[in-house]
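User: Sequence in, structure out. Go.
Assistant: Echoing your sequence, followed by the structure tokens.
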Amino acid sequence: MPDLTANLTLDGLWEIDDNVPLVPEHNEELEAGKEALVYKRNELIHSKHHLSATAQKIMAGLLSMIDPRSSDLEDLTFTVTALSGLLGISRQTLHKAIDPVTTELQSQVVIVPKLDLINGQNKGFTKFSWFSHCEYDSDDQEVTFRFSPKIKPYVLELTGHFTKYEFSQIKQIKSRHAIRLYEIFRRHLTMADVERGTKHTIRTISVDHLKALLGLESKYPKLSQLERCVLKVAQTELSIQTDLRFEYQIIERIGRKSGSKMPAGNIRFTIYSNRSDKLKAQEDMLSIDSLSSNLKIEALKAKYTAEQIQTAMEALAEANSIGTDIKNPFGYVVSVLRKFRSFI
């Protein structure tokens, strides 16, 4: 299949529906110094690559440590413990992944629309690897990353046409396609839009162009396969794990001569802000009052401090987030609290 994204502008990829309410076009603002914000020029958001979920998280996590106002990309060195903490995964998981993932990040090519910085237009494409150097020191348990110099104009000295998002939003996502869709959707419903009160936007993209962006040109020949393996999975993960959610509608093409319906050619996405729903769910999860009877809850509050109970509830939330099967949430919280007493 030909490269459908190489010679198209970003606006040419995603169509705007004239008959539906749209989000106003707001540029993001730099918030340098605020922790764990990922900044990317929109060309990098809409780039074409095949990175795994773990590799994407490492890339985003490293970018969240960079000041976008800087003029130079410095090497980033982490201990295995610090890097696993940044990514929200265990040391054991990172140890297993660090060799193949650093190879992936250094060897895989990303295809980005080429920038004409003078005229602000795209002219062709640029191909480069994410990193020019990755190094692991087993004695010091340290990992060093050196970005490819070609990535510099897409992440530094940004003045407009970029997207930002909170790195924490993608940390728990398991599907690589869901991470890509989150970034793309965040470009079209920005944090600035949501802060100004906009709750949703609608965008349409062709099935072929969407598959090209996700690196799926040769996969899922049937639309039902794309729905089941990509769209439905991303829909669930984004709704549960992030501050965005989406719905979609398959739009069938009409034959020019007979007016007969042809295979679906476009997908219309409605992208919603999920922040209030997510925060409410987190508040509910971190509230102990719903876990047991009032009598047991009051007895627990009389025995432990509010800070201890909150920490135990956060431990419960973390266990749930990694898929631990907890049949008795109240009992789990009590067991965590009892450990506190053993250290007193």
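User: And one key feature?
Assistant: The chain has three domains: 6-28+162-275, 35-159, 286-342.
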